[in-house]
Specification:
CATH class of the largest domain: Alpha Beta
Distance between the termini: 45 Å
Protein name: VOC family protein
Pfam families: Glyoxalase
Strand content: 25-35%
Structural class: alpha+beta
InterPro entries: Glyas_Bleomycin-R_OHBP_Dase (IPR029068), Glyas_Fos-R_dOase_dom (IPR004360), GlyoxalaseI/FosfomycinResist (IPR050383), VOC_core (IPR037523)
Radius of gyration: 18 Å
CATH superfamily of the largest domain: 2,3-Dihydroxybiphenyl 1,2-Dioxygenase, domain 1
Order of helices and strands: EHEEEEHEEEE
Shape: globular
């Protein structure tokens, strides 16, 4: 990325805090399956819950709260119902749709195969480009990022992604006008 923030000197994401239903299962997945070291654990006061941090590389962390009284998530509202490329991936306004972890381009195919070998349900490889469908059927000129998607034990949508073309943020990559709230097609309840 080559764009510069003119307001604040930001160094990336310090941590992203998500909510899980079972902290042990979360540790097993993020440390055991994905290999992220558990770097900090906190027992919240008054038996409210726990807050655990995992090193996801580059000095960044992904963290989880476990709350004793947390309501269950609702697929399609608090998180997508399906993996992109396999079904519905819309989520509600204010929700966190997915977390993308940067992986080396030269190891992308290996990592996709490794997730599959570990028993993780993984989407097909998606070669994102600027075509009308936004995804090319194979690697070709114009693909700017490759992705594969999978879910953690609580259904949180995760992505392995690697940049393969020009860095994003250059002026020629910003061509679409932002939509407004008036452009939304909000589903009504029956």
């Amino acid at each position: 990325m080559t764009s510069k923030n003119s307001e604040f000197e930001l160094g990336g994401i310090n941590h992203l805090a998500l909510v899980c239903s079972d902290m042990q299962r979360t540790v097993d997945f993020y440390s055991g399956v994905l290999g992220m070291p558990l770097i900090k654990t906190i027992e919240l006061p008054g038996g409210v819950g726990q807050h655990f941090f995992f090193d996801c590389g580059g000095g960044d962390a992904v963290a989880f709260f476990w709350f004793a009284d947390a309501p269950d998530g609702v697929p399609g509202i608090s998180a997508p119902k399906s993996l992109p490329g396999t079904g519905e991936f819309v989520s509600a306004v204010g929700s966190m749709n997915h977390v993308a972890f940067h992986v080396p381009a030269e190891r992308f195919e290996e990592y996709h195969a490794r997730l599959t070998a570990k028993g993780v349900k993984v989407s097909p490889v998606m070669n994102h480009d600027n075509s009308a469908s936004t995804v090319a059927p194979r690697m070709q000129k114009g693909v700017y990022v490759r992705s594969c998607y999978f879910q953690d034990p609580d259904g949180i949508l995760l992505e392995f992604a690697c940049w393969v073309d020009k860095p994003l943020g250059e002026e020629h990559n910003v061509t679409d006008a932002p939509k407004t709230a008036a452009d939304r097609r909000v589903a009504t309840s029956a």
